[in-house]
Amino acid sequence: MTENKRIPITKEQASLFRNNNFDLIRLFAALQVAIYHTALHLGFDSANNMFLSILGYFPGVPIFFFVSGFLISRSFESNSIIKEYSHNRSLRIFPALFVCVMLSVLSVYMLGFFQNKNIDPFHIITWIGAQISFFQVYNPEFILDYGVGVLNGSLWTVSVELQFYLLIPCVYAFFKLKNCSMKSSNLRILGIIFPMVVMSIAYNAFKPELKEPLWFKLFGASFLPWFSMFLIGMFVQRNFEYFHKHFSQRWYLLLATYLAVAYASKSLFDSRTDNMINFGLFLLLSLVIFSTAYSSVGLSHKLLRGNDISYDVYIYHMPIINGLIYLGFYGSALSGLSALSLTLVMSLLSWFLVEKPLLARKRNALHPVTSKL
Fold it and tell me: CA 288, CA 284: separation in Å to the nearest integer?
């Protein structure tokens, strides 16, 4: 007797999948990163701050990677035409990124940083080209004296995300995930996850000693230490019916469990809850994310009305923080409030003027975006 293969989802299943709170979760993740960077770089004491301590249990980057694995894998399954898939993914990343990079460089110029500096224009062009393409890890020496020394250090995850986008079609094709039984599919995905977890553990273990060599920095900016997080999202998505049945509407129980286990693990074993979060804790956090996404499912639309500024918050907050540092505007509550306020203003402008109109051009999108206000 052959095993049942995965069949196309019904309209009811598709509706169940689409009605979620992922926009709200992504906004939370982006704000977590922005608030943490604001506290870190603008001179706030986060060690004794209860709010920041609790916020630290919910690292934004791993949350983004899980959500991305969940949504992008379903998007590819619903429309695996490579040309349309690539078109949609490019619209999601590059227009807002291009505008952000150009405005960020312009702000550095307007603040007078380039005055009296003999910088070869070719080096500036190379730097800009790296930032708006695939090599955001590149950071030239002439920018080391500006702000924290990196104009927009958060952009390293953009290159990682782009690698995820490229890997999805390869994984589906090489492992024949669309043509095998669910049991075989799950075993194959788990078979990829295991070596990726090993890569993540190795990166975390050797980072204190090998953080300077270029090859190790490139390794950290590759998909290898992070792909397990993305694949967990993909695994949960491909077993959506099971996880929805057992974990939807149970966010409060899962949240309490996660916080208790995370606190005990951190206190007793010094387990990490930052970007390199302990993998066991990440699995628990993934269940919290999923359950929250499918509990009170109208909340995200009610609060955000389909407006997703999470990406904009993520890419704009560090250039703003760096500008304030360069101006000497740090070390007070006002500086932190200014950084977050300016980030939200720029994010809203970017969403309504750049992202939203262009995302409306996505082809056969899983979550269509209308350009109308």
Answer: 6
